[in-house]
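Researcher: Can you fold this with 1,3-dihydroxyacetonephosphate in place?
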Amino acid sequence: MTMAGRRPLVAGNWKMNGLRGAIAMVEALRNGLSTDLLDRVDVLVCPPSTLISSCVAAVYGSRIAIGGQNLHAKPNGAFTGSISAEMLADLGAKYVIVGHSERRAYHHETDDGVHAKALGARRAGLCGIICVGETKEEREEGRTLDIVRAQLAIGVPKGATGADTVIAYEPVWAIGTGLTPTPADIAEVHASLREMLGQLIGAEAQNVRILYGGSVKPGNARELMAVENVDGALVGGASLVAEDFLGIINAYAR
Ligand code: 13P
């Protein structure tokens, strides 16, 4: 449940899915969202980089935002295959996901690397969505709070604000599995993240949105959004199906 002043954000992470035909999904989203609804919830789609331009064109004139899924920390240079925050911003992206657990697991991203990327996002005027989350083993060992607090403490740049930073709590074991933590477990982690943010950035912590991600579906969205300190959702699989994503957005609108 988001507090007054924090607009809910529902973000779709398409991961490595979507050819040009997927633009129709963004058009369906645009057609399915009234301006009244978009006044009450921020909606973001993060398609693969190859589709960012066409998605930006498809949402032109609406409040739906488009974002990247990853970035290189540097603005430019000899980094074959990489994309900088400036390049994303140049295409019209407004957000970028930083440190998703799939990047951490398959591309060896570290907390320091996440910090550098978050700084890169801010440099280019993008809002960075910094992802944190524990593995199944870490949860079973009772280390969840230690893990996510450390990821946050290293990842979040000094002076972060609600305008340039969003946090996403995504338990690794809940991603793509249909499993979710209990509302009480999510409340505990989000409260702990909010408290840690307070240590890092003071009163501004109240303005930073903390999303929950991991098997968010239309059927559980209402229950998840009702949890204290949950300010929105980062949605994988269900963001690929217009009807499902619209269902989730409706559940999160305030
Ligand atoms: P799912 O919604 O498919 O579980 O994915 C969550 C996620 O990783 C979003 O970034």
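Model: Folded with 1,3-dihydroxyacetonephosphate in place. The beta strands are 9-13, 42-46, 65-68, 95-98, 127-132, 165-169, 209-213, 232-235.
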